[in-house]
Structures are given as C-alpha cells and as structure tokens.
Design brief:
heterodimer, A: 713 residues, alpha+beta, four-stranded antiparallel sheet, 27% helix, B: 292 residues, Chitinase A, domain 3, 6 strands
C-alpha cells in the first residue's frame, strides 16, 4: 500500500472491506469449489514435460491506447477469441457493426493467455469515459497543480498529444509522484480513480477466473496480469507483470506509482511475493528495441552503477524477456561486429517507441545495438563476474502485443493488423493501404515446456526459463545441454528422460565440467505441420575471453546447407524442400572451461511470404496497373480498407452498386477515376505493395532460451 | 424536462421499462421523425427507428460533446476542411458542433450507437445470478461448458527426415514388430520428436494441430486395442493404438462457477438490452416519412 496517500489508503481499505463483505454475502454457505491449484491436478501430467503455446501480451478495450484506437472487445471477448470464437474488429459501419472479423486459426490454438492491459490510466481512463462521473467534463485545473491533466487530455487520440501527456506526467512524476498518479480530475486523494481502478482490476480478475479451466481437463490456462508502461522521454522500458495465481495485489502498480523499474520490483515484493499469502509474480521486459539505447543501461534510478542487490532483484524478478512481437524483434541488430545475416529479421528502422506512432520523425535515430538482447547477454556475463549475479540472465519468449484483443493472432496469411501503434483503425473510412504499419508484424507465441497446462506449471516454467518463442508458426524446439549426453541421443525414444537426467534443459545452467570435457547439446525441432518445413538449426554462442565479449553463430548445426528453398513472391507458393524435424547432438569443440558462456538455438523455416506480400498477392496487386490499387483499397474486406466509403461513393454513381470495385463494368474506368478523385487521399499505386523497402519473403523462426555455463569460481 | 433515459440505465435506476419514467414525468413523450426511402421494408424501417431512438437518447445526454472518439473525428474533419487553420483542437471541435457536423457524420453515428447499446446492457445488483440460477444455467446449456472428449493412445513414430528412403521399408518392419507385440507396450521403439510421448491423452483437435488432419482422423475413428498405421504426416509415419476413449464431460458447478456466471451474465445483458429497447420503443412517439 506504499503508493497510496493516507486519505486514499483509508478509502481503499473501506472499499476493500466493502468488496470483501459482498463476497462473503454472495458466497456464504457455499461448500466445495475447485480444489487447490497445485501441480499435478491435471489428468494429463508428464514429469518429462510437454510443450504449450501461449500469448502473454494482449491489450483489450481496457487499455488506453487500444481504447482510443476503437478496440471494443474486453477481457471476456479476448479469452473467447483465444478459445476459438471470432471477434469483430474496427472500423465499424454507421450502425456500429464491425466491418472486419478476426477469426482464430484453429491450427494455432493457444493453451494459455495473459491479458496485459496498461496499468496506467486504468482507473483514470475509466472515469474519463464514464459520462456519469463528475470528472467526465472536468477540464485541466492548473490552479490545483501546475500542468494538470483533465479528462479532455486523457481522452485525446492524437498520438502527438498522447506523447505530450506522457511527457507531462513523466515530468510531474519526477517532482510529485502522487500528483501524477491522481490528477485533479480524480477528486480529493484520487478517490474517483481509485474506485474506478478497483472495478476495472476486478473485471480483469473475473475474466481470468472465468476463462481458467479448473477441471482436470486443463484445456486452457489464464493468468492475471497487466503492463507497467514506463516511457521516460518515450523510451520503452515496459514490463508485463504476470501473477502465478488468483492471489494478486489490490491494484496494479503503474508507471505513475513507481516510475523506476527497481521500485516496480520492490513493489511486487512488498505487495505480493513477500506477503506470505500465496501471491507470486514476475515481470517480463519487452521491446528493448525501442528504448533509445537505455534498456540495459548500467545506471540505477539514482544514476549509480548497478549493485549486487539491484542485479539480484532483476535476476529474480525478470527471468524471461519477450524478444519478438508486433513491434519488432529485439534479438540482434545487423551490421554489428559479428556476422549474422539473419539478424535483419523484423527490425524496426528506429530506436524509440514514439517513432512507432510518429513514423516520419526520427526522434532518436536508427535502432540502437545497445537495446538488443544479444548484447545484454554478454553484459550480463560481465556483470556476473563483477557482482556475483547476472541481471540479464533472460529466458526467451515471443508474444503478439495485440491491441485488438486477439490473443495468438499471429498468422501472416490472415493478419488484419493489431490496431496498436496509434493506428486510427477505429474510424470509418479506414485508413488507406495496409491495415497496419508496414514495418510491424503479427507477432508470435510464447512456448513453454511444462508438466501440465496449469498456472503453477506454466509459471514455474517461466521462472526456470524453460521457455521459447517463435515468430508465429508453432515450431517446437527442444534443447538439453550436458557434459555426457550420448552422441546418439537423437535416436533414443528416451531422449527426454536422458536429457533431464544427464543434462539441463533450455534456460538451465551448466557448471563443474569434468576434466577435458566439452559441453554437448541435444538440439531438436519439429516444424509447424501447417507451415513451411525447417531449413536449419543454428546455435549462437557468446562467451567472455579476457574480459571481451565474443559471439559466434554456428550456422548449420542441423539441416541442409544446400537447401535452396524459396518462395514465389507472385503467388506466395513455397518452393523447394526442407525438413519436418531436425535433431543432432552438437559439441562445442572450442570450449574453454575458464570462460563464461551461453548457447541458444535458432530454428529457421524455409522462406515464406511476409504478411504485406501476402496481402498484395491476395489482392492481385499489379504494380504496373494503378487501378488495381483502388480495387485493393475499396474491395477487399479482409484488408480492412475503405469498403463502406467506396460503397457510398459508388452508390452515388451507379445507384447502389459498388462500381469502384467492378473492373468488368463498362463504366468502371470512369468510376475508378472519379472515385480516386473523390477519395483523394488514396496512395499512388506504388505507395505500398511496390515499395522496395518491404521485404517480400521472410524466414520464420523459433528462439530457445539460452543455456549458460559459469566457470568454477 | 425529461432526463435522458440512458442515464437511468447507467445508474441502474430504470430497471424495468422506460414506461415507468414516462408515466411519472411531466410533459410530453419524446418524438422523433424517421425518413426512409419509399421502398424500404418494414424491418428496415423498424431498425432505423430503433437506431434513431438510441441516437436521440445519446444526443439528449450530450455524448456527442464529450465522447473522445467523436471529438477526435470531428477535429480531423475540420482539419481536412480547413487545412491551413491555426486553431487548436478544442476550437475546431466547437466549430464542428456549431456546423452540426455530428448529425451527419457516419463515424459519430456509429460511435454513439455503440455507446447507447453498451448502456442498455447495464446489469443492476438485483439481476446478478444466484447460485440456483447458475446451476440451472449449467444444466440447461451443457454444450457450452462441455470439455472435449480425449483419446488415450500409444504412439510410435518413424521420422521421414532421419530415415529418408528407408522409411517405407522401416514402416513395414515396424508394423510387423507391433503386431507381434500383442498387448505389450512398444517400449523403446520408434524415433523421438519434440512433444511426442509414448502414451498420451489428447483431444482430437490437439492431435490435429500437432500432427495434421490424417492422424487426427485415424485416432478419432480408432478402435480401442488395435494398432493402426502406418499413418503418414509431414513428419514421417505414425503407428497408434487407442487405449481408452474418454467421452466429453461437463464439470461440476463448483469447478466452473466463474465460467458459468460469465456466460449467464452475457445472456442477462442481452435480455436487459431487449427489455430496455422495447421500453424505449414504446415510450417514443415515432413518425415515419417515406421519401419517394
């Protein structure tokens, strides 16, 4: 309760007591209920662990940005989508019906989901969107506090104004955090926003509880969570907070409560982990690629270098990092000293979160190599030598960061955009061109190896880093490292048991090498049966040599080095062959037992079409034929473009027929010309599909968590 | 002066019908005129009447003045009309309202309709479901809460990548080995594959997502106790023996209470929305003009 003022604390306790009373009244005399959520409660339990896929980064109508972008599905609808129910997606027609439908891919069902609505504004934005709130029409009150923010500012949808509000609040945070959290519109001591925040947080918990399968079928697991959205000077330092179970703090900790990450961690310990209530939490950093070079900086909040206690907190609270999602990859940056041609995958051409909204402004320059995880893995090993603990010992996952409440919506072939990044998809007519910023991507799932599909099992997998991420396809990689792994382990049906008995899985640590031994790694992977075959498996090794950080990419640990697979960009048909599964036992012959090291695995698919190329192909786009661009904009409902607008225009021309879309209509050339004149803002034919900047083909992939080696001290 | 009905919905004061309000208020009932093309069907006319009623309620409550999306959209419209203006957003917004732009804009209309429909679904405390109602709901809609049946089966896999051209002959040999095993477990046979277990229990849809349609179909149709295979997949070939088929089931209310409550609440919201819409419909005096 550290972050509540005395008055608001009193109010909070009063409200909490009220809620507790209601619960007691509602549940009085109720016997039974689901059994304890302990490991082993699922009928399908395997001590050798099973792969599960999930998404731990989803925004619904409860998030400020998603809300302002017109996203309407809430937590219930998001969970329903994860289980197979389509949702309506913006824009909406004049009767309020969604013009687009996002349909879950039945072959990419999720096993677990954590909604991560932004903690910031959770109560405040609810107040500002509730016409019955006294604050609804309350303007900023500069007399109450300098630079106050009113509901009008909170309700702004102008990206530049959002940034301005963020900056203003950031500046306030440095001076008076309480004022920042509860601006004047929240009333005395933040009363109205606290009350609204409790309601919204209760919605999040109720939805998670309703979605969680507590039967022994264990078909679906939900986690309560939120996003702590720190953005000093709009540099992204965001973390998703994940709770082990339904014992959670009374309110999320927002950036405005705790503007420094070490205070978020301290808050999670104080409010949850150390309370002896069964509450447990971890934080998942993400989008380090958009932190303007600051994500893994050494200074703490006071500008001092990390000390051991900081490093320990970061190590304990942040076992996993999300290195791939809608807003790009954070693995590695091309052009660095180490040659790695595959580092160019889904790299955003800027270094700052604000640039996602303000595409034309290079506020902080190009992507910064200091923000990428491969560099941090090296820094972490250096810090471990200095401090005795590695603050960047991160396992690896992916997620979507969808802002349309569509968990796991990560298929390049059906992508409708995630609605985030300030894209005004809520409006009718919809923006021209692609339904999302062309640099962004559909994201991918988080994978875990866990005993069963339950909260405890999956949370523990995160904690021990036995996790992986993919760029979308359900590739299943498995890795074990050890000193004595049999070289023929790939042939053994007992592979998993031997792997655990004689080694450590992904995310683990190797130590104490027998004399003269070199580490061996069982690396295997299975392709997504509905996606492209695998091309190869790579191992990325990083180590410290005389204090210097070195990296080597072992390019073809498994797979066919002569694989010439490709994709026909005119049709998106894959060409060539690949492997459905790959497996090998690889030994590091260059191993030096005195050098700290890590090893992670990258599994590479054969080339396929990127979502942008897929949409151009689906629209029969022809760069030599400008009228096709108009057809694409007007006539493809799956592209989420100007359908209703074009219908309106066409109706004026031909009495209700969508003449703009009818290239076979004798009058269509006139119509198209007219429509183009009217539309005015439609891009030229080469504006999108013909941009050479956009890569047509990609190689989807999976990344495993590293296995670390630490020499004997 | 009449207070906007949706306000009452939001605060839970109007629980049964707009009629109650109108019976106790002073003044005349609200009137609207709906203009429709002459060839409109009755259904189209009725739909538009209801939309106009909701829009009128939103208008009477002044949501067009305070809704964030309406605000941004009208500002954007104004900047399109006046590209060189130096006025701030609020000034432009006020000017848009003076021009009555909100009355004719499809985005504003859609947004206000959305908000009005949301208001109609407000659930007051006394409509929250009781435990008895939850039990009844679970029993009446078992299909909604059913857990998909699972198949427990033994699985032997031969990798096409690993065996290459020998896959076909290896499959023949494996088939014979399994046949000779009788009821014994096929321990130690076949190739490993990430996620594949010698014995596992899965739903057919999980098998489909993991190994493709053909293997899922074979397992779904499989008879308990006999080996089936080789069944091809992108990975190679599979041999499966169904050990047990667990039928679909509905967990007890104690296990799935939150799930049942959420489902019932969505029904209650739909019901309340209909009730309230009917109350509004009955409360309004509606004139329909058919335009040739």
């Amino acid at each position: 309760m550290r972050y509540l003022t005395p008055m608001s604390r009193s109010l909070f306790f009063a409200l909490s007591a009220f809620v507790v009373t209601l619960i007691a009244l509602g549940c009085g005399g109720d016997s039974g209920g689901p059994g304890p959520d302990v490991l082993g409660r699922c009928a399908e339990f395997d001590e050798l662990r099973q792969p599960f896929f999930g998404d731990t980064h989803i925004h619904t109508v409860l998030s400020l940005d998603a809300n302002l972008q017109g996203t309407r599905p809430g937590p219930m609808e998001a969970y329903a989508f994860a289980k197979g129910t389509p949702i309506g997606v913006q824009p909406y027609d004049a009767d309020g019906n969604p013009l687009r439908t996002a349909t879950p891919d039945p072959d990419r069902r999720l096993d677990f989901v954590m909604l991560s609505d932004h903690a910031e504004y959770l109560g405040t934005i609810a107040v500002c969107n509730d016409p019955n709130s006294p604050a609804y029409d309350r303007p900023a009150d500069p007399d109450a506090r300098p630079d106050d923010v009113g509901c009008i500012e909170y309700r702004t949808t102008n990206p530049a104004e959002i940034t301005a509000v963020f900056r203003r609040l950031n500046a306030l945070t440095a001076l008076a955090p309480d004022d920042t959290r509860y601006p004047a519109l929240c009333g005395d001591s933040g009363t109205e926003c606290i009350e609204a925040g409790i309601d919204v947080w209760a919605q999040v918990q109720d939805a998670a509880e309703a979605a969680y399968d507590r039967s022994d079928s264990c078909d679906f697991t939900s986690f309560v969570g939120y996003e702590w959205s720190a953005g000093p000077l709009t540099a992204n330092l965001h973390r998703n907070v994940m709770f082990r179970n339904d014992v959670v703090p009374e309110l999320p900790i927002s950036y405005f409560d705790e503007p420094y990450v070490e205070d978020l961690w301290a808050g999670l310990r104080d409010e949850c982990i150390d309370t002896d209530t069964g509450c447990d939490a971890l934080a998942i950093p993400h989008n380090s690629n958009l932190a303007a070079g600051t994500f893994f900086e050494r200074p703490d909040k006071n500008g001092n270098p990390f000390d051991a206690s900081y490093a320990q907190l970061r190590h304990d609270l942040e076992p996993v990092i999300e290195i791939f999602q809608h807003k790009g990859a954070s693995e590695c940056l091309p052009g660095q000293a180490i040659s790695d041609e595959l580092c160019g995958f889904e790299i955003l051409p800027y270094a700052n979160l604000a640039n996602v909204n303000l595409q034309d402004l290079q506020l902080f320059g190009d992507a910064d190599p200091r923000d990428f995880v491969r560099g941090a893995l090296g820094e972490g090993m250096k810090l471990e030598l200095e401090l005795g603990v590695n603050p960047f010992q991160h396992g690896i996952i992916s997620s979507t960061d969808t802002h349309i409440a569509a968990p796991g919506y990560d298929n390049e072939k059906t992508f409708l955009g995630h609605g985030g990044a300030g894209q005004p998809n809520r409006e009718l007519p919809a923006p021209e061109g692609f339904p999302d910023v062309q640099y962004l991507n559909p994201g991918g799932p988080a994978g875990v190896w866990a005993e069963e599909n339950s909260r405890n099992a999956i949370f523990e997998a995160f904690r021990r880093r036995e996790v992986f991420g993919t760029s979308g396809p359900r590739i299943v990689p498995r890795v074990f490292g050890g000193w004595d792994l049999p070289t023929d382990l790939c042939d053994s049906p007992e592979l998993s048991r031997i792997g655990y008995e004689q080694g450590v899985p992904m995310g683990g640590e190797l130590s104490d090498p027998p004399d003269g031994s070199m580490p061996k790694f069982l690396v295997s992977a299975k392709q997504d049966p509905m996606s492209a075959p695998l091309q190869r498996i790579q191992i990325i090794k990083g180590w410290l040599e005389g204090g210097d950080y070195r990296v080597q990419v072992f390019d073809y640990v498994a797979g066919d080095p002569n694989n010439t697979a490709s994709v026909d960009l005119a049709t998106c048909e894959p060409q060539g062959t690949g492997a459905a599964d790959l497996c090998t036992v690889w030994e590091d012959e260059s191993f030096d037992p005195t050098q700290p090291a890590y090893y992670y695995v990258r599994v590479i698919e054969n080339p396929t079409c990127r979502w942008t190329a897929q949409q151009c192909v689906d629209a029969n786009y022809d760069c030599d034929n400008p009228t096709t661009q108009f057809d694409f904009d007007c006539c493809d409902p799956t592209a989420g473009l100007n359908v209703a607008f074009c219908d309106d225009v066409a109706a004026g021309l031909t009495g209700g027929e969508a003449a703009c879309c009818r290239t076979d209509n004798p009058t269509s050339s006139t119509s198209v010309s007219f429509c183009n004149d009217v539309a005015g803002t439609l891009p030229p034919a080469d504006g999108q599909c013909c941009r050479p900047r956009l890569e047509g083909a990609i190689q989807e992939r999976a990344w495993t968590s590293p296995i670390w080696y630490q020499p004997p001290s | 002066m009449l207070r906007p009905l949706l306000h009452f919905f939001l605060i839970g004061a109007l629980l049964f019908a707009g009629k109650i309000v109108f019976e106790s208020r002073d003044g005349d009932p609200p009137e609207i005129t709906v203009r429709m093309p002459a060839d409109s069907t009755e259904a189209q006319v009725e739909k538009e009447i209801r939309n106009q009623i909701l829009l009128n309620e939103a208008r009477r409550y002044g949501w067009y003045r305070t809704d964030p999306i309406v605000f941004t959209h009208l500002v954007r419209n104004m900047r399109f009309i006046e590209p060189d203006t130096g006025d701030d957003d609020l000034t432009l917004f006020k000017r848009a309202l003076q021009m009555n732009m909100q009355e004719h804009d499809p985005v504003v209309r859609a947004r206000l309709l959305y908000r009005a429909r949301e208001a109609l679904t407000y659930v007051p405390e006394d409509r929250m479901p009781t435990r008895e109602e939850l039990e009844e709901h679970r029993a009446a809609h078992e299909d909604r809460f059913e857990r998909e049946g699972k198949v427990r089966f033994e699985h032997v896999f031969l990798s096409g990548t690993k065996r290459g051209e020998a896959l076909a002959s290896d499959a023949v040999a494996m088939s014979a080995q399994l046949e000779a095993l009788g009821n014994a477990a096929p321990t130690g046979r076949g190739d490993p594959l990430p996620g594949l277990r010698a014995v596992q229990s899965s739903t057919v849809s999980q098998i489909r997502a993991s190994y493709g349609e053909e293997l899922a179909g074979v397992i779904d149709e499989g008879v308990v106790g006999s080996w089936r295979g080789p069944v091809p997949s992108v990975y190679g070939v599979h041999f499966v023996r169904v050990l047990e088929k667990e039928p679909s089931s509905v967990p007890a209310l104690t296990i799935i209470e939150a799930e049942v409550r959420a489902d019932l609440l969505s029904e209650i919201k739909e019901e309340l929305s209909k009730e309230r819409m009917e109350a509004l419909r009955n409360a309004y005096v509606v004139h329909v003009e058919r335009i040739p």
